[in-house]
């Protein structure tokens, strides 16, 4: 992962550390293996990553099987996430969308619904530019040829996001917490 990508993940961790403790939530979604990565992220936030801390609101939209199948049946698969974003998302919340191609229509539609609803939309994708990265407020595009390599990089990004979140949460409010997130992500990079 390039240096600018590491800074982006540290920034996201610091932003989450401002949003979630204030009562905001993180919504996440993906398809296939990316759904598993998104669910991994939400589990780390509701549970814990490394050290004890409060539980935070994080929802994997694809794990709501009755909602996914009902929305897919009634509105079409392209809307299975957008409808849930509209239902659960509030201005200031964060929506994380993962896609190895960056071309999944249901995720692009969710990104548009999130932005329209005042959510901050982040995308983890494969090579850019791609439609999902363009629909999001910010994106980390992994320049790799294989789906497996993109998914592996996304898992590292999910863990770095959790590291950055925990570091910013533990640090003093404001810039020091943000700097702590950058130091944590940088230390992880050197150890890799």
Descriptive labels:
alpha/beta; 8 helices; 5 strands; disordered C terminus
Please give a structural write-up.
- By secondary structure, this protein is an alpha/beta fold.
- The chain is built from eight helices and five strands.
- The radius of gyration is 16 Å and the shape is globular.
- It starts with a helix and ends with a helix.
- It comes from Streptomyces glomeratus.
- InterPro entries: GmhA/DiaA (IPR035461), SIS_dom (IPR001347), SIS_dom_sf (IPR046348), SIS_GmhA/DiaA_subfam (IPR050099).
Q: Count every beta strand, where a strand is a DSSP E run of 2 or more residues.
A: 5
Major sheet: 5 strands, parallel
SSE pattern: HEHEHHEHEHEHH
Structural class, from helix and strand content?
A: alpha/beta
Annotation field: number of helices: 8
Q: Provide the spatial order of strands within the biggest beta sheet.
A: 2-1-3-4-5
Low-confidence runs of at least 5 consecutive residues: 174-192
| Percentage of residues in DSSP E strands | 5-15%
The overall average pLDDT, rounded, is: 90
Distance between the termini: 10 Å
Approximate helicity band: 55-70%
Radius of gyration: 16 Å
Shape: globular
Domain SIS: 16-175
Pfam families: SIS_2 (PF13580)
InterPro entries: GmhA/DiaA, SIS_dom, SIS_dom_sf, SIS_GmhA/DiaA_subfam
Organism: Streptomyces glomeratus
């Amino acid at each position: 992962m390039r240096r600018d990508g590491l800074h982006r993940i540290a920034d996201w961790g610091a932003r989450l550390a401002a949003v979630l403790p204030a009562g905001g939530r993180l919504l996440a979604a993906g398809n296939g293996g990316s759904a598993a990565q998104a669910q991994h992220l939400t589990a780390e936030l509701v549970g814990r990553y490394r050290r004890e801390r409060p539980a935070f609101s994080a929802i994997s939209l694809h794990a709501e099987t009755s909602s996914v199948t009902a929305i897919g049946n009634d509105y079409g698969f392209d809307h299975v996430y957008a409808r849930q974003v509209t239902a659960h998302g509030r201005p200031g919340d964060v929506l994380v969308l993962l896609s190895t191609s960056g071309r999944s229509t249901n995720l692009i539609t969710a990104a548009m619904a999130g932005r329209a609803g005042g959510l901050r939309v982040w995308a983890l994708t494969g090579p850019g530019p791609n439609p999902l990265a363009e629909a999001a407020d910010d994106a980390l595009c992994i320049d790799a040829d294989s789906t497996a390599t993109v998914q592996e990089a996304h898992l590292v990004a999910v863990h770095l996001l959790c590291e950055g979140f925990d570091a910013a949460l533990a640090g003093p409010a404001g810039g020091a917490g943000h700097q702590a997130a950058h130091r944590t992500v940088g230390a992880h990079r050197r150890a890799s």
